[in-house]
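hiii, so i know i said id send this last week but things got crazy w the move. better late than never?? heres the sequnce for the chain we talked about at the cafe, plus the structure i predicted for it. fair warning i was half asleep when i ran it
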Amino acid sequence: MMARKVMLLGEIGVGKSSLARRLVFDKFEFDYKPTIGVDVYRYDVPDTPSRPQMSLILWDTDGNFGDAIFKHIYMKEASAALIIADLTRQQTLDTQRSLAAGFSAAFPGRHIGYVINKIDLVENSDALTLPPHLSAPDVSLTRTSAKTGDHVQSAFISAANAIARRSA
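okay and structure toks below
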């Protein structure tokens, strides 16, 4: 089974750890514990007719790195990044755009998945106007709630599918 490294990037408090824990353990913890450095998780994505089974090695980074993360050893051999923003904090969407540009420059051709987390905190989140970087037709965007589990698995499966397409 192939294993691929996926970076979880975003500001402090956007829900990177909560998304990883929801995916891997199907749990949500209400006590906030910031990640210091990096936590690593493994999630096995079952095979499909178009993609073999794949292990995603999730690197849940601390949000203090900013753009300096792209020069860090943590990033070595990353196949993809899920760049997470908090729907309730506009500045995290700006940071998301900046992190995507940095990842794209450091790792050209690698998959970038945009995740907007905490949709459970906003009524009718689908009706909100998104910034231009999330409105392009070729953008991989998933709206999630780590709290309820909504669309969490699909964000990671989309990344696995994109990685497999690029590897073929």
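btw The radius of gyration is 15 Å. thought thatd interest u
miss u guys!!
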